[in-house]
Amino acid sequence: RKYGKIYVNFHEPISLKDYLSQFSQPFAEMPRPQQKEICFDFGERVLAAINRVTVVTPHAVIAAVILNSAPKRFYYKQVLAHAETYLAYLVSQDVNLADTLVMDRISAFNLVLDAFVQNNVIDKSTSEFSDSTRANPLFKINESKRPTLEYYKNSGVTFFMPAAYTAMAILKTDAFQFSSGDLHASYKFLKELFKNEFVFDPEQPVDFAVRKNLKAFINDAIIIPHPTLPDTYNVTSTGFRKLNLFAAFLVPYFESYWVVLNFFMKYTRKPITETRNYLRKIQALGNRMYKRKEIERIEALTRINYQNAVTFFTTHGIVDPESSKEQIDFYVDTFQRYRRYLPE
Length: 344
What we know:
Blueprint: H1 16-20, H2 32-53, E1 55-56, H3 58-68, E2 73-75, H4 76-92, E3 96-97, H5 99-118, E4 122-124, H6 131-135, E5 138-141, H7 146-154, H8 161-172, E6 177-179, H9 184-193, H10 206-219, E7 223-225, E8 232-235, H11 239-247, H12 251-266, H13 279-291, H14 303-314, H15 325-339
Parallel strand pairs: 1-3
Antiparallel strand pairs: 2-5, 4-5, 6-8, 7-8
């Protein structure tokens, strides 16, 4: 009664016995590398099943809107407009929504904003209200409370990542006209880059995911099919802003990984496989980069993101600061190109 509803859902049971029966060799007799691969694949299937029954709440949607808004101050009507964009995408993907979002989403959003104000997560303007400001009050995010908002956002963030990858791929084409094939390489790169952060259906191919997201973007008038050229799309006048709304989900992850890359460039003196011993130094570097405005999001300064970044880079060729210079330079150059198109 005090905090609202808790949703507990269950997926159909997944049989490990049935899964292992597809292999000709008993699991216990397999080589250890094959055992690890099978365990990882089965784990991905379990996580994908959890995602399919997870409920997205109004708190998750509004927290995402606030964190992904470029200015630290934002108006009520702006929040609602951005929330409608996110909600339209969730509906297009048949995501499970909290019943409050289905019955009366505006009231649900208002309750969340009121709760965030009461908990000092955001501040509401207390200046004298005119008729216009009363209908469209101004809010300001409390920067020290961004991690609290991140907690709420993370309960639904996985569902937005395919849209974020697609939006980022479109923005990176740096053109108002593109084909779906133009997006595949970027989508695949982003999915691989953040595979330690998000798990998706391992059997879903990239081209299918891209087309599914393009269909959702068409339905929301973010893009429109070209009238004569097949498999070609144009970004609409309002679509560019909405693409940035989705790409903004990637900002804290790019910033976390950028901190780790900077550490690899400047501070490692031993093989990077020993980076577990360096996590405190990585955290200290991240704090310094945040204070120097080299990264903008305080929610990017998280140990788990750093650990996932270290895992990604060390499994993709960055092993030793001397012998891995070419790989480090590749990722530095790639990150700089992607970050150029991320919303500020």
